[in-house]
Structure formats: C-alpha cells, structure tokens
Amino acid sequence: MSLARKIGLLVSLPLIAVVAYATLALFATAQAVFTVGDLRSAADIAGTAGKLTLDLQAERVASITVLATGDSSAISEQVAATDATVDEYKQKRADFQAPPEHLAGLLDRVDSDLNGLAKVRSQVASGKTVSLSAVIFQYRIIAADLLTYRENVAIAAPVEVADQIRAAALLSQLIAGVGQTEVDALRALDDDYTPAIAQEILESEAGVAESSLEFKRVASGQWQAWLDHARAGHAALAAQVLQDSISRTPVGLRLKLDPAAWRSAMDLQIADLGDVQQQADQAVLDSVTAVLDSQKRQATIETAAVLVTLAGTIAIAVWLGRPMIRGLRRLRSAAHAVAYKRLPEAVSALSTRGALGSATPKEFADRVPPAVAASGKDEIAQLASAFNEVHHSALHLAAQQAELRDQVDAIFVALARRAERLTASLIAQVDVAESTEEDPDRLAQLFKLDHLASRMRRNNNSLLVLGGEASARMDGTAMVCGDVLQAAAAQVERYTQVEIRILDEALNTELHVSPEMAGHLAHLFAELIDNATAFSAGGLPVVVEARVTRTNVVVTVSDHGIGMDPETLETVNAQLTSPTIDVRAVRSMGLTVVAQIAAWYGIRVELRSDNSRTAATRGTVATVVLPSTVIRPYRPADRRALSEERNERHFDWFSPESATPPPHRPVSPKRKNTTADHRDASRVAGVMAAYARGIGASRPSGP
Prior knowledge:
Radius of gyration: 62 Å
Helix content: over 70%
Order of helices and strands: HHHHHHHHHHHHHHEHEHEEHHHEEEHHH
Shape: rod-shaped
Structural class: mainly alpha
Largest sheet: 5 strands, mixed
Distance between the termini: 79 Å
Number of domains: 3
C-alpha cells in the first residue's frame, strides 16, 4: 500500500467516525422531519374528518326528517354537501400512503364506513323498510370512528402541538354530543318521552359538559374565548331554552316541542360550534406546519454543518497532506533513483581503473550534487538532509574503495614488473647456457629451467592482468589457433598430459588470432589447461579441442578429474562472468585471470560437468567461445607471412596427435638466426631424448 493511501486511510478513519455520528444525528433529524410530515398529513385529514362529522350530523338529522315525514327533498342537498366532503377526504387519504401504525387501522375503518354510507342512504330512501334507530346507529358509528381518529392523531405528536390536537378532538366530541341531543329529542317527538330516551338525553348533555370542561383545561385562552363566544350567541340561547323545556317534561308524556324550531335552533348552534372547530383545525394545521418547517430548517442546518465540517476537514487534510505526500514522493523517487540508477552508475564508473584521476575521494563525493532538494525544517526536510548525507557517504566510501583498488592494482603491477625483470634476466642466462651446452642431459636440465622460467613469466603476467595492465605479447605477428593452443600448453607444468586436437583445418590455414590478442589468448588457455592438468586423475590426458561453428570458434578443455558439485560450478561460472579482485581472486588467480581476459575481449567461458563419463573420471569441461573480434580470416599477404613465420619457428610444432609436445617459448627471429644450425639440432635431439627417457613418450614424427 502506497504512503498516500496510508495517510488517506489514517485521515479517513476518524473522518468516517465523525461522519457516522453526524449521519446518525441527521438520520434522527430526518426521521423527526418525516414524523412531523406524517403528522401534518394526519392533521390535515383530521380537519377534513371534523368537517365530515358535521356534514354527517346534518345528513343524519335530514334522514330522520325523511323517515318522519316521507319528504326526501330535504336530504338531497345535504347528501351532495356530504359527498363533496367525502371526496375531499378520500383525496387526502390517498395522498397519505404510509400512515403510522396507530392511525392506519382507524383510517381503514373510516374507509369501510364511508363505503357503507350508500347502503344507509338507500335504506333511508326506502322509507318504511328501515327503523329510525338503525339509521341513527349507522351514522353514529361513522361519526364515532372519525372522532376516534381525531383523538389518536395526538399520539406521538410533539408536545407543542399535542394539546392543540387533543383540544380540537374534544371540541368535535362536544359538537357530537350536541348533535346527539338533537337526534334524541327528535326521536322522542314520534313517541312518548320514555325513560330510555330521557336517559340518553341526560348522557348526551353530560358528555357535552364533560367535553367542555376538558376542553377548557387543555385549550389555550384564545380557543376558550372562541367557544365561549359561540355558546353565548342567540342560537345557543334559543337552543338552551328548548333544552330546558325538554328537561322539565315529565317522563312518559309527549314532548311539547316544535320540531322545526328545535332543528333550527340546534342546527344554528352546531353551525356556530362548527366554525370554532374549523378555526381550531386550521390552527392545529398551522402549528404542525410551523413545527415541520422548523424541523426542516434544523435538518438543513445540521446537514450544512456536517457538509461544511466534512469539506473543511478534507480541505485541511489535503492542504497539510499534499505537501507532505509530495515531499515523501520526491524523497522516494530520489531514493529509488539513487539506489537503482545513480549510485550503481557511480559505483560502476568508479570500478574503472583510474576513474578518480587526480581527485581525492572527498573531492569526488563533493562534486556530486545532492540526491534530493531539502527545504524547510520539518521531519521530511530533516530526512532528506540525512539521505543526502548517506548518499554523500556512500559515494565517498565507493571512491575510497576505488582508490584502494587502484593502489592494490598498482602494487600488483609493481610486483609483476619487478619479478618480470628478474625472470627476464633468468631466461637470458638460461639462453646463454643453452647456446653453449653440448651435453644432451645437461641441455635437458637447462630446458627444464627454461620451462620453469616460462611458468614464472606466466605468473608475472597474471599479476599484470590482475593489476589491469596488458602482459607482453608473444610476438608481433598473427598466430593461428593451433599455435596459440601449443603456446598455452607449453606454459603449464604437466604439458605432457595435454592433447590438442584441431577439428577444423581452417583454424591452421584460414583463421588467425589478432596480434594484439594472441598473448592474452594463450595466457587464458594456459590457465584453463594448467587447472585441468592439476585436477586430472592418474595422469590421464587433458584434451583440448578446437572447432569452427557458423558464428564463432569454440575451444573445449576436458579433464578426467573428480568434477565439481553444482553449487561450486554455479559459483565459479558466476566468477567467470563478473570478475572481482579480492583475496579470493588472488587465491584462485587462474580463474580470475581467465575471467578478466574474457571480459576484455568479449569471450564467453563456462564450466560444466562431463556426465558422459563414469563417476570416478567424470571431470569438468571448460567451454571457450571466441567471437569474431578475436578470430579473423587471413588475407593472402597474411597467409604468406604465416607460412614463412611457421617455417622460421625455433621449434617445429608437433602434430595434434602427439601426446607429449615439448615446451615452447617463442623467440624472435633475430635471436634464432644467431644460433648455429648444428647446435640447434643437438638441442632438439637432446630435449627429445630427455623427454623420451623421462616420461616414456614416443618420438615425434618430424623435427
């Protein structure tokens, strides 16, 4: 996970927690808004229900008149008014799709009651087929359900509007009681003033009185003034006079009451009370709307506060975090560039001998610009400064190592040059002794010393290679591959074990090694052959084979030793690919020299186990791939020079089939021409005889 994501996650976790708590608060506020919204819809329906109660009351009185007189003209106008109110109710009811649970059942009952209203009306229209009590009871059920709904609207309502809703419901109950008194008196006009009717009238009046007292306890002063004004009017006084006459009538007698005057007085009183009810319902609706608007404003303010807080937090996090993340990214990019590009390139450049020139390690490190720009005083700037110091120290250390390596190389070269001078003096003395010696045995001993001196010279050349200096070339002319391999074999101690096989004649006729590379190539093969003869078991031969492929020349050096385990082979091949000069390189100087020369000329050297043999003599095969830059075709002039050069060699070469070639140290033609022919023949014969006696080898086929 990137650092930016981690910082974002670190900032987002508390932010998410704050947003979660704010969301819960907003959810509660939104829930309150929805609740008050439902309450407003319920209150709006309650107002229509109150109006519908008044219309049903009037329709009930008209129905009693129709049943009493048979005249249906008095009810048609009231039915139309009631239907208009019913349609208004149904429209609001349809808009209130998800009422609270405590109102849903009541609304369903009211819906059912209103659907059955048509049946009651048909019964009234039929006249004699229905009783007056049944009609009154049906209308009373509908009114009771509407009143119950108005009472239940106050459940779960906010405190500031709950009392108003209850007061409006009490006002509806008061009006319903007055209407019930009117109906009970009309029933008594058709019959005697029975105790049952008298009891119902008393209960209705008691209900009106109780509702009036409860209303005064709950309602505000303004609402009480509205009610007092309505009950103090002429209609209320006239109705009260008629009610007093009813109460004075003895039970069992007929009421002396004018039906028209009674209906007129009671209807006017109910109308006045209905006006108060409509005022109260409108006041309730306005109060609930005000609460709803307040809740919406609160929800809007809280939402805006949360959004502003969230935006501010994010802005501050971005304002503070972006520079920090940008600085860390710059530091990361710089560290990545230093670790994977700049520092490796600097170290690689320092690996070149003499890369420092005349500069000291400190001067070299000081010239390199800082890895990352460090500005400010915060922790990131301090980290950048520390990283620059680490980068400077790494360059200084690499420069010190390069300086130390150059000094070690100089030591190698100085030791090699000094030993080379001593070896050259020794070889010169041996040459003088060889030129004057006639005894074949002593001449053979001199040639052994001469061979030992050649091996010492190879050791000196190895030190020169380790020190980065080119060793002396074998001569100034080009050499064919066979001559190079013979020269290499002549520089090892157990040269008699070496068997050279030139598999393609073109290596002796058409292809040659560049003069500037011949000495190094002979040195490379000498190290491989020397290593092979040292580990070849029981004096078994070391086979050197050279062949031409389509793109290059491949030379293999095979021994009959115990071989190497896979881990060792992998380590050695890695060393051959990337040579390093250290203590281990000096201990295994031969392979290090091979790797160094191979790196100079693009030669590929690889060791592998020879799995085609038995476990006892499995051995190791060294494969050397010579590119076209090392092996080149001869031009005609070069081919003639090669033929003359090979004819003028101090020793003729043995054929590839020969198992014991004599040691070979090339000498210049000038020195060779100063030697007497008969002395050369004696020296060759002496060496041949000495080798035959010493190792039991067969005599070569030619001089």
